[in-house]
Amino acid sequence: MFVSTTTNGIDAKGRVSVPADFRATVSGQGFPGIYVWRSFNGPFLEGGGQRLLEDYSDAIEDLDPYDPARTAFERVIFGGAKALSFDSTGRVSLPKEFLDHAGLDKQAVFIGMGKRFEIWDPTAHAEQQVDDLSFARDNKSALRRPSRRRGDEA
Amino acid sequence: MFVSTTTNGIDAKGRVSVPADFRATVSGQGFPGIYVWRSFNGPFLEGGGQRLLEDYSDAIEDLDPYDPARTAFERVIFGGAKALSFDSTGRVSLPKEFLDHAGLDKQAVFIGMGKRFEIWDPTAHAEQQVDDLSFARDNKSALRRPSRRRGDEA
DNA sequence: GGGTTAACTATGGGATAACATGGGAAAGCA
DNA sequence: TGCTTTCCCATGTTATCCCATAGTTAACCC
Question: At CB < 8 Å, which residues of chain A contact B?
Fold first, then answer.
C-alpha cells in the first residue's frame, strides 16, 4: 500500500529518488521499478507497480473489445505509461514530457493513494491540498459507514 | 480493539512507546506497526492498524475510480497517513510535523477509541476531556439503543 | 502465604545502517 | 563524434537497530 506524502529533489539530470516506502511496496512485484503516466485529470503524474498495471489490464479485459472507454484506457494507460526502473540507489529519471505535463522543476511531491500514487509539483500540490482537505472535511459522512470487510460479502 | 488511556514519554529522538495493549491489538495484521495521521478535527493525531486502513480502502473503492470525491479522500487519508513500524521494544518515532500538529513535547496520551485510537498532548487532552464529559452527560440518551453490529447492514 | 524468580514494560544512549543526493565515468544512440 | 542516459562511488544527515537499566506485574514454589 502506498501511504504518506514525501517531497524529493529533482537533480540536473532529471533524476528523483522514489521514497523508500514506495520502493518497498513494489519490491517483489517482478519489475524493479515503477510505471508512470500523465494523468488526464490534471497537471500531475500517476503511477504504481507492476501489480497495479496487471489490475488495470484485468479490469479492461472485462470491457467490450470495441467499447470506446476500453480503447481510451488502453491508449492512455498502457500507451502513455512508461516503465521507469530504479538505479542502484532507488532513483528514476523522469522523461521531459512528464516533467512538462506536471510542471515539475526542482522538486517532486509523491502522494500515496493506497493502490497507486501521484507525483505533483510542490506549488500545484499545495493549492490542490487546500481543496482536498475542505472537501474531505465537508463530505466525511460519505465514508462514515464502515464498509463490509473483505470476505463478508456472502 | 483499542481501549483505555495511557500516557507515555517522548524522548529526545521523538520516540514513544506504543502501549502494549495497542501493540497486541495490531499484531497479526500484517504490518508490524501503526498508521498515524493528523486529525482534521483538531490538534491531535489519529491512528490504527493495517486493518483500519484496509477498511478505509474498501469504503473508498465503493466509489467510482475517478469520482472527485474518491481522489480527494485518497489524497487526504493515504497521503496524510504515515506507516510507523515498531522497533524491537515497541516504540515508534513520530515525525516532526506530527509532533507540531498535536503540540506534542514530552509526553503523549494514547486514547483507545475502539477501531482506532487518538494521540494527544496531556494539556490539550485534559481540556478536551472536560468538554467530552459534559457533552456525554447531556447526550447520554443517544447511547441507549445498541447499534447494529458489523455485517448486519443488509 | 510469603518470598523469590522470571517475564514484560517503558526508557536511555551509543553504534550502525539506510536514505537522499551530488558528481564522474562508462555505455548507448544518433 | 557529440549528446544523452545509465552505472558506480562518495558524502552528510537521519533514522533504526541493538544493547543496557529499572520499575512493575505475573508466576512460581517451597
Answer: 1-5, 21, 41, 111-115, 118, 128-129, 131-133, 135-137, 139, 142-143, 145-150, 152
